[in-house]
């Protein structure tokens, strides 16, 4: 509320006629005038402001809380009691004022004075405050003690009743401005963690975990995001037989780490089984399941857990102390998600303090540690030693020659069972210098020196051969490219001679399949790639343009065989589809190596 | 009457200005303490012309003391020939002096503000604080005068106005002094170490003021109990003697 408002209200209450009735307070040795009762105050406020009793009481309490009126009995509770409890007006010197902040120096002097008067018997919170102030106002302390003494002596000059009144006034002032609520004071004076301690904890954590942080240290064999080599993920799979050394090391950091790693938990479970104390972990896991499971099955789960682990004579009885058991059983009468929290924590601590230590020394763990894999770091130089691009090109040319020699044989299509090895597509092969690109081929307008193989392959793939409904790589510009490719292809390509479909022997297929990686290897970052409107050179002139050959190597193979000659090893469906699209003629079948499903749609 | 301070060293001639300084600071502390008591009466049931007069007189006395104290202490601090121990003492006095002055400044501001709200001359409503007697004795203590005449004259509004403006000026003056002290005197307050005890010794205070008090139930209690015990013992001894005599007589 507005202080000025209360100032004026208090002055109004002083009026001998219209103000609050005052009476005399009788003390043992003297009487002091100007005492007012709570009920009179409330009544006066109600009449003056035309408000109800409750609101009048609230206003009265505000006045007491601010310090305009103070209670003579029960001085620590700053409320208006609407009965015969006595109050008195505070002297203006002690009225709350915003322009003068409440000074700690004054409080220190007050406490020192109080100490003098009570001969060293300060209340607990006062004692604490005094010591605190002494600490940080130490340089002024002589002055404070001196001033306290002087004020005390000056007070003694006054008449006894006035002295009593002044003491009450001062005490009331400090109750308002330094309330003796233990809770808040404890909050203020709560011991804080020293920064040295918290920083020490941080340092310890960093030192322990730094080698496991992929940002700081290279992860072995290599970070898949950097090298596209997924060995790391494969080595660290959940149910792998032999974990990596780093992973095992992590289990030694803390019990929590061991439990949160599924492989670690498995190892621990194995150890516990050998020790015949697997029920602890089973119980813990059951509790986790309860906590994180669906609400529908919660009750049943809780009951099941109780029957299995907690009941007397249960098949997998766990050993928890009586108090926890009592709390848990009581809670199970109204089960909820966290009803087993206490028991779970108990078991967790038990495992942590007891089993964990023994596990780390156990033969199970040592065995795991011994068998742990320490992968070699990824060798960037020797990426695919067997797949040097020069050799690959030679191989391709050989194959081409063979094909040309052996007639319209077979499928250049990838065997659909060839597992795509995407990383090869990215990193194998070198970029061809664009300057030697044939004039007929346009480079992609936005391709970098080594465009991504995806864009390369897709951009060069005629729409007819591409499947966009798989949704993976569809984007707005593809259809247009496809269309333009299609049109250009249909325009410019020569109609190949109709060829009969030749059944491909499985061995050849397999061979083709095996060569597929090499094919991809050679292909990918092709710089002089056909642009959206580009066309793929038909294989009519394979040798005339080495460049296009290179680019279309991937595609060339396919171009050889007209659609009707292609062999689809498995699915007759495809054949049907394909035959419908034969009218196209000269359509290139491009199968993206990473698409395991290769369905050709004739429609495009 | 400046109070003797137990801290004051008891050596030779160099101690004289030291003791002077201490005495001045002590006086100022006393006056400021009294001023606070007087200030707490403003706007209350004992607010009157005489109270305002007492306030004014106390204030003026404090001002003179402050000026002389400041001059003395600054002279001492500027003195390069001062020994290390003396310098520390002087710095302590300086800290006490500046804290005192700050307290005084705060009280003066409050008095000024309240004076404008509660005017004696205009007979504005005063708060019924329960006080009955005046604070003349306090003022007397401040001014170190055993008797202080109560002012009977009525204060007019114009006089009050004058008083207020004078107070305003003095506040400004003290403000400037404080600022000068802060800026120009090179005493780092927080580096000064207090020498006194953490707690004011209650016993010493009481014994000192025994002479001033009358009928204080707290004082002399110990002596009385000792006397009582002694008397008891004597009485018991007497009774024993009497009994033995009786026995001898009867036997």
Q: How would you portray this structure in words?
A:
The complex is a heterodimer of chains A (604) and B (251). Chain A is built from 27 helices and 4 strands. Chain A has 604 residues and is mostly helical. Mean pLDDT of chain A is 74; it is low at 413-507, 513-587 and 596-604. Chain B is mostly helical. Chain B has a domain at 17-123 and 154-184: Methane Monooxygenase Hydroxylase, Chain G, domain 1 (Up-down Bundle), CATH 1.20.58. In chain B, α2 packs antiparallel against α3 (84-117). The radius of gyration of chain B is 26 Å and the shape is flat. At the A-B interface, α1, β2, α4, α6 and α7 of A face α1, α3, α4 and α6 of B.
Present the secondary structure layout.
The complex is a heterodimer of chains A (604) and B (251).
Chain A: H1 3-13, E1 23-26, E2 31-37, H2 38-49, H3 53-66, E3 69-71, E4 86-89, H4 104-117, H5 124-136, H6 141-156, H7 160-177, H8 182-188, H9 195-209, H10 224-227, H11 231-235, H12 245-251, H13 255-260, H14 262-275, H15 278-292, H16 298-310, H17 322-332, H18 341-361, H19 363-371, H20 389-406, H21 422-427, H22 453-460, H23 477-492, H24 506-523, H25 546-551, H26 553-560, H27 572-580
Antiparallel strand pairs in A: 1-2, 2-4, 3-4
Helix pairs in contact in A: 2-3, 4-5, 4-6, 15-16, 15-18, 17-18, 20-24
Chain B: H1 15-39, H2 49-78, H3 84-117, H4 136-143, H5 157-184, H6 202-209, H7 221-250
Helix pairs in contact in B: 1-2, 1-3, 1-4, 2-3, 2-4, 3-5
List keywords for this structure.
heterodimer; A: 604 residues; mainly alpha; 4 strands; 3% strand; disordered C terminus; B: 251 residues; Methane Monooxygenase Hydroxylase, Chain G, domain 1; 7 helices; disordered N terminus; G-protein_gamma-like_dom (chain A); GTPase activator activity (chain A); signal transduction inhibitor (chain A)
Strand segment count of chain A: 4
Overall geometry of chain B comes to flat
Per CATH, the architecture of the domain at 17-123 and 154-184 in chain B is: Up-down Bundle
Our measurement of the CA-to-CA distance between the termini of chain A, rounded to an integer number of angstroms, reads 79 Å
Task: Please mark out the parts of chain B with pLDDT under 50 across 5 or more consecutive residues, or reply none.
Answer: 1-11, 203-222
Total beta strand runs of chain B: 0
* Mean pLDDT across all amino acids of chain B: 80
